[in-house]
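1st attempt posting a full record on here, be nice pls
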Amino acid sequence: MNFKTYIHAVGTGVKTNRDLTLQESQDMMQQILEQTASREQIAAFLLGWRLKPETVDEFLGALLACDKYIKRVNIRNSIELGYPFDGKANNSYIFPLVSKILQNSGLDLVVMGDDIQPAKDGITIKDICTNIKLNPNLHYFDRADFCPPMHKLTDIRIKLGLRTGLNTIEKLSLVANSDYAITGVFHKPFLQRYTKIFANRYKRFALIQGNEGTPELFSKGRLWIAENEDNFKEFVIDPEYYGINYKKSWDKITLEESIAQINNPSDEYLKLAKLNAALYLFVAQKAKSVNEAFEILE
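the predicted structure (as tokens):
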């Protein structure tokens, strides 16, 4: 279909905008990935799509289009960690330490990265994974390699400078055919939407009120395990219950500071990493509860 049809669907105002069908969304995303639509058209659509806003069927169609371009491998006994591609601004990442704690657990971690995307301007997964030595059970996938068409949209997105629907669908790519996945969510109303988009792609899918929208717990928050598209099991996780008194930062952190914290972690930061490791073991069904997983790691 002519790409102008899709721009018209999302860019003519509240009274005349309409939702795309799953098939239309798949065609829309394919044209964006192949850039058969012009750069101006792509930017116009992404802005209108965000403001309309996006529907579950539109996200599902876009994911189906992306699937055709993703080069996948099989990493058994792995959990995919869905991080935002706009990075972390105020706190270091904890997944490298989690991988060390899990190195004898039989669970591998999968993370994905790329050049910075809008709009936080934080430190990215790629920044970390290309500047430290990774544990053998931590697998980093660079999007320039596993999905070049999405990577090539970076400059358009940077010039637009806003979050778009791509920020949602890029969090989890099933790049390693993992059975398990967890991603961060800011607000409870988004639980059902994220579950309808991603849960059917994994054996078990979880969401967490993670630090800066990541799947990393730094303070008291909720973990949700999706039982189906409409129901969740909710768990309140409080680091203090496990004797952890880490205080998260509200100040902007540099890449050098972030790497230093990973390479020379404080005792409290290591305890926090252990709790996150326990969360992932529970999500991956290697423990019956977070408490049991934490005790195993002790």
